[in-house]
Design goal:
251 residues, alpha/beta, D-Maltodextrin-Binding Protein, domain 2, 2 domains, six-stranded mixed sheet, five-stranded mixed sheet, elongated, Molybdate ABC transporter substrate-binding protein
Length: 251
């Protein structure tokens, strides 16, 4: 009887081992996205993972930084940029599928300051000791802000007061903590913080239009899953989440 019991246990063990070895691991998709999309994407990530056998790995940074990572061979499946220029460069280099690439969101720039600030308009930045902007070479929001300040003929007066940040969320943090007297971020970044004062929206005619493209990478090892997520981001539910966080959906 003991031998039969041992044999039965051994057979059960082999059966369990066989079953476990056939379980498919979840697909992992790396999503490189502009830092300004952080909050909306984290909410979308939860919903998508609940509905699909896929793990999403969010790689959030300035669009220019992400573009350089992709050019250097970083493994990315889907790219969401806050900068058409960076995105188009990757399309032209055949790193993004032209058939799976689209402009889908818009944003605006706003001037913010710590709570209690006496600033009332963009012209008032000429009086501040420190103003935070994203690095124009890698942070689209910083480049758009510099364009606007140049067109307003303010840039030369404040250039020495500018503190550069690695992305818009760092600009927001500098203002929230009072380390600077003002900063320029996207409307959506100001939208999520109750620690700042929103001074004014910057006229969109003063800078390049702020458009967010999305695309599937040519180098994706999980193209079908990447395309599925690409379309998921464009459905009505995902778009309502982006709108909730202050983005404007492109029809």
């Amino acid at each position: 009887m003991k031998i039969k019991s041992y044999l039965l246990c051994f057979v059960c063990f082999l059966f369990t081992l066989g079953c476990s070895s056939t379980e498919k691991p979840k697909v992992e998709l790396t999503i490189s996205a502009a830092a300004s999309l952080k909050d909306a994407l984290e909410e979308i990530e939860k919903q998508y993972e609940q509905q699909n056998e896929v793990n999403l790995l969010l790689n959030l940074a300035a669009s220019g930084t992400l573009g350089k990572q992709i050019e250097q061979g970083a493994p990315v499946d889907v790219f969401l940029s806050a900068d058409e220029e960076t995105f188009t460069n990757l399309v032209n280099k055949h790193l993004i599928h032209e058939d799976e690439a689209i402009n889908f969101l818009k944003n605006e720039l706003v001037l913010i300051a710590p709570k209690g600030s006496k600033l009332t308009s963009i012209e008032d930045v000429k009086t501040v000791d420190k103003i935070a902007l994203g690095i124009p070479e890698t942070v689209p929001a910083g480049r758009y802000a510099k364009e606007a300040l140049i067109n307003l003929e303010i840039w030369k007066q404040i250039e020495n007061s500018v503190i550069f940040a690695k992305d818009v969320r760092q600009v927001l943090s500098y203002v929230e903590t009072g380390n600077v007297s003002a900063g320029v971020v996207y409307k959506t970044d100001a939208y999520i913080s109750d620690k700042i004062k929103r001074i004014s929206t910057i006229d969109s005619s003063l800078h390049t239009p702020i458009v967010y493209p999305i695309g599937v990478m040519q180098t994706s090892k999980h193209k079908n899953e990447a395309i599925d997520f690409y379309h998921f981001l464009q459905d009505e539910n995902a778009m309502s989440i982006f709108e909730k966080f202050g983005f404007t959906v492109i029809d």
